[in-house]
User: Fold this.
Amino acid sequence: MLKTYTLKELEDTGLIQLGRGKVISRKDLKSIKGDYPVYSSSQLGLGKFGKYGEYMFDEELITWSVDGGGKLFYRKKHKFSITNVTGFLRILKKDMIDYKYLFYCLSILHSQINFDWVKKAHPSTLRKEYNNIPLPNIDKQKNIAARFDTIFYKIDEIKKLEKIKVEKNNSLIQKYLEKIFTTNKNLFKLSDCCEIKPLKNEVNNLDENIEVSFFPMKDLSINNKLAIPNQKRKLKDVKGSYTYFAEGDVLLAKITPCFENGKIGIASNLLNGIGFGSSEYIVFRPNKKLKNGWLYYFLNRSSFRFEGAQNMSGAVGHKRVNKIFIENKLIPIPSIVEQEKILSALENLSTFSKEINKIVIKKEKEMNSLKNSILNDLLNKNEAA
Assistant:
């Protein structure tokens, strides 16, 4: 049986080094401009945070996000930096450990550990949790890694094809929405056909101890028409500082990147018909001539999000869509009968789209499960050899 190691043991024996990136702000990126990419685990999801005039590494590396997501990455050799919310693993003795092999070993362990990534994915935690790492000789490691690469390339190609299906489907829906809402007939300002940000005094006469729905921004979905809260609070605890809305109101995130990502929904199944949530919501209450579903689809267009993103104000990272832009945005409003007819077609299209997405998500989970199964199988065979 091949001996296994923890990351701490590998570090204590001088085989690897664990560490964190450094503090790099957007202000730094502006003041020290350059050609070297910076990777971060912020809302950009370990993507490129920007370009910098200095670099930390010029080698292969394994990185992971410390404060969110928890994704592991194998970085090919190039000049780059990582921010302080990203951890790194450097191999000090490459004649004993192969980067790709170790990355695949960690990927198995990673899928088995239920981290609280927001708080606990620090090097100290990984030293403890990442254990049972087998280390055959370097040639066997490279051979196993090469086999993984070949198999996983084929799996990833399947996942790419499935992703293309979703993108094509979403593109068709957006084209259909543009066809519906691109017209010069029966145009009205949103402020003229909606009450924007209904007043809280509507609940002034209610018992402050009644329970109402609570709906934070993180619970507002993308491409889910109905925004159904699963939290509740007493009215007295939320009335003061949170945004008020009622059954049937349309909620739209106004802050970046939630606005651009398409966080929007129709408030539904509210306790006592009342809800409170993020101060970053714009709340729309359509008048009798406008169906809330019609407004939902109008606001859920990629072209609207693009235009809104061009009309934002505020500090970087905290920009919000402009109030005047929202109030003056023109929406076509046909008769209620015509709205209902088109909405019926949109609902059928949306249902079909969700079914496609479910199939793709299921396949992706199956592919990921297959990856872990192959990893475990090959490593277990290797341990027994």
